[in-house]
Design brief:
The chain is an alpha/beta fold. Helix content is about 55%, strand content about 15%. The chain has a 5-stranded parallel β-sheet, with helices on both faces. Helix 1 packs across helix 2, helix 1 packs across helix 3 and helix 3 runs antiparallel to helix 5. It is globular and about 45 Å long.
Length: about 150
């Protein structure tokens, strides 16, 4: 069985959140995991935003972008840990779907934003029927079992 891992589970595993305990329980299972590059990009951005807020308070995209030039080191540990997590689990990196018509159809059918629709399409294309996520938007996808 392969479990798709969503960005919020990855972030909660790597950074302390109210869901860290649940994320650890999921990712410490003896299961095969998969994700897509768009989910990893989202995990990178969310983690970096949380780190920025911890250091500087209110999030502002322009301010975060300035820290990339001056203070990238505040994000380095998180990004290294993300890279290590993906390689050590190991996580199969699936190619993102490229059919725009199917993407729009999934968005409309399930009332999903584009990134979530990409996840649904990737799972469908690769026969994945379990998703580790804290996002309630995946609860109404009939072929996906939401964990936890």
């Amino acid at each position: 069985m392969v479990i798709y891992i969503d960005a919020n589970v990855i972030v909660s595993y790597l950074l302390y959140t109210e869901r860290t305990k649940e994320a650890r329980k999921i990712l410490e299972q003896e299961e095969a995991f998969a994700t897509t590059i768009n989910t990893l990009e989202e995990a990178m951005f969310i983690g970096m935003r949380l780190i920025f807020e911890e250091h500087y308070g209110d999030y502002k995209l322009k301010k975060l972008k300035k820290t990339l030039k001056r203070e990238f080191t505040i994000y380095q540990k998180y990004l290294n840990n993300l890279n290590r997590l993906i390689s050590e689990l190991p996580v199969l990196l699936l190619p993102p779907p490229s059919d725009l018509s199917q993407l729009i159809e999934i968005m409309e059918r399930y009332s999903l934003l584009p990134n979530d629709a990409l996840i649904v399409l990737a799972c469908k294309a690769h026969g994945i029927n379990k998703i580790a996520t804290f996002d309630s938007d995946f609860e109404n996808i009939e072929f996906l079992e939401k964990l936890p």
